[in-house]
Amino acid sequence: LLWYSYFCCLVSLLSLNAQLFYLIHSLVSSEHLVTGIIGESVLLPCDLNLSINPARLRFHWQDHSDVVLYSFNERVEQEYQNKLYTNRTNAFEVEMSSGNISIKLSQVTPQDNQKTYWTTLLVAGHYYSIYTWHLMAPFSHFLSLHCTLSARFLTPKLTVKYKVRNAVCLTQGGYPKPKVTWTIQDLSQPQNGTLEPREVQTNITLDPESGLYTVSSQVNFTENYTDNHSVTCQVFNPVLRETVSNTTVIRTSITLLMLICVGGIIFVYKQCKLQFQDFYYYNENRSSTV
After folding, report:
1. Can you give the residue ranges of every domain in the chain?
2. What pLDDT is attached to residue 101?
3. Architecture of domain 2-150 in CATH?
4. Measuring CA to CA, which of 97, 133, 157, 256 is 20 to 30 A from 209?
5. How does DSSP assign 204-235, residue by residue?
6. How far is it, in rounded angstroms, from Cα 25 to Cα 20?
């Protein structure tokens, strides 16, 4: 009876270790990419879908430089955490018993971009001792996450300068480097016309302090782009696959008419002022002579 119990225990142990080996191997063979937004939080996921006693659980997260983000050994070990990640990482302790050893990285910065994070899991105790030392060793770095960061651009400010016949598009606060496109549409026609790069002058600069991009782009009008046309500036974020845009309508003839009217008013005002000054000067001289 004792031999039979030992045999059943051994079979159960081998079966459990085989399941864990399959789980770890499947995690090793897959690629995991996460996208974070600067200033916000990002989840570094790792869910084993396995019942684990947290009192026997030990795991830690590190980046590609072996800097510790988070360490847990029956409790949170803040003494091993690097100051770069102080007050920036949290785990889901309530869910650890079900195998969730994910962590949340908050206040994402540009310095976190393109980093690779990995976690090591060790489960102490009788049932896992053989697995820990023999099967875990080749797969200690079993889950690797590559983090790509992004930041949303503000809605562009679009200004039309009729005097020099061009439109200027300004936006900032985004990451990574965006793609800027312009379209001009004849409002009487359904199709859009995308401007060629040679017709667009775009300047994209990186702020060394914030690590975010500022965009300034402009396009000149041709004689064909007059009234009844709209112009749109689009800024595309390749990581978020998000486009922010702004549109305005070109009003060249109305603007020209307004300029003519304003110019005419100014001209008439100056002429009247000169005539009044001449009349006043004439009367003053006449009074002095009398």
Report:
1. 2-150, 157-250, 253-283
2. 87
3. Sandwich (2.60)
4. 157
5. EEE-TTT--EEEEEEEE--TT--TTEEEEEEE
6. 8
| pLDDT score of 249 | 87
Under 8 Å between Cβ of 62 and 68:
yes
**26, 94, 220 from 170: Cα distances, Å:** 47, 47, 15
Amino acid at 259: L
Q: How far is Cα 150 from Cα 51, in angstroms, rounded to an integer?
A: 35
CATH 3.20.20.140, applies to 157-250: no
- 240-284 per-position pLDDT tens digit: 889 999 999 887 655 455 555 666 677 666 766 666 665 555 555
Is the pLDDT assigned to residue 3 strictly greater than 70? no
Q: Say how far apart CA 156 and CA 237 lie, in whole Å.
A: 13
Tokens of 10: 């051994």
Residues 6+ apart with CB under 8 A from 255: 162
Q: What does the alpha-carbon distance between residue 271 and residue 278 come to, in Å, rounded to a whole number? A: 11
Q: Kindly report whether the global pTM for this prediction surpasses the value 0.70.
A: no
